[in-house]
Structure prediction request, 244 residues.
Amino acid sequence: MRTPSRVEEDDLLSGLVASSPLTFLRIIGDGKFTSEHLLSYEAGYRTLLSPTFHFDVAMFYNNYDHLLSLEPGAPFSETSPSPTHLVVPFFLRNGLMGTTYGIEIAPDWKPTDWWRLQGSYSFLHMDIAKSAGSLDSSTPISTEGFQPSAPGCPPIISGVNKELEFDQTYRYVSALPAQVIRNYGTADLRLGWHPARSFEFSVVGQNLFQPHHAESKGDPGPLVEIRREVYARSLGEGELHGQP
Prediction:
């Protein structure tokens, strides 16, 4: 169970939606929002298939009830503060329900002493719907569209020898319709040199497949885009071992 927060108990948040006529949208917490419920089932299996190959899989199914919804109320006119304006209220209620299910897979293979391959894949399906009597038509769609259905991150990590390291990482994330963000795939590369135990020099390239791509939307504001970048850095003994 998730109990209501102070914000959900007595929130009063207004935002301008039109200047002519002057109209505000207002989200109201009036103490009638109750606890959300979750019944979750999870199962997993982890095994060492060989001395060099490790495999991990996990599955889950979640059943949600009494989820937060925004229920519209009757618009009303308000004179204070001036000038007179129209208020469109939305009340915090428990009008949504839904299910999610998915799987996570994470293999790890080290074919040689200098070469290691790791991967991960996650699949998520989300189905959010209105309960009987709910008038919230926007929250189910926006909630489902804020989570990627298939994020994957299969990196290939290889150390050439004790002095050189070469890491390659590719990742793919599916689209976020509610944030108007397309699916994307990109890669990172790193070449590291350890001439001594107390020193490392590396050249790193991140998000190399495109000049920039969006991963999330600002709230409020435009899309936040991640740029391609290439840089070099050096680390001394303290930094290599996590010391200040």
The mean pLDDT is 84. Helices lie at 6-10, 139-144, 237-240. The chain has three helices and 15 strands. Residues 110 and 220 are 45 Å apart (CA to CA).
